[in-house]
Amino acid sequence: QVQLVESGGGLVQTGGSLRLSCAASGRTYAMGWFRQAPGKEREFVSAITWSGGNTLYADSVKGRFTISRDKAKITVYLQMNGLKLEDTAVYYCAAGRGYGSSRSVYENWGQGTQVTVSS
Predict the structure, then answer these.
(1) Per residue in 81-93, is it b (16+ CB within 10 Å) or e — as a string?
(2) Backbone angles phi, psi at 86, to 5 degrees
(3) Per-residue model confidence as pLDDT tens digits over 41-98
(4) Which residues contact 70 (CB under 8 A, 6 or more apart)?
(5) Which of 18, 41, 45, 60 is most buried as measured by Cβ atoms within 10 A of its Cβ?
(6) Taking a C-beta distance cutoff of 8 angstroms, is the pair 28, 75 a contact?
């Protein structure tokens, strides 16, 4: 079981930027970010393969968010630019042997970090 710890959340004004980090306790394969706003389902944000050579983004964040991972392959980042009110949510890091936008391909989940965008 891989432990995932997110950091980097906080309060930011619209148009601002934040960078989320997710540190894994061991080897991971594909990693992803999901988010859940109050009263809504947890939704896919972005994913990256082990090599970092392939990435996926939800249409709602494409062009504003960038996912990356370090060379040691144990930390994944989510650079969020041009933040909007609707980006407010708890952001969760996930890791798994699968790769994609479905929650079912990820076996390990972090506890989440709150991102709040204010006007």
Answers:
(1) eebeeebbbbbbb
(2) -70, -5
(3) 999 999 999 988 999 999 999 999 999 998 787 899 999 999 999 999 999 999 988 8
(4) 76, 77
(5) 45
(6) no
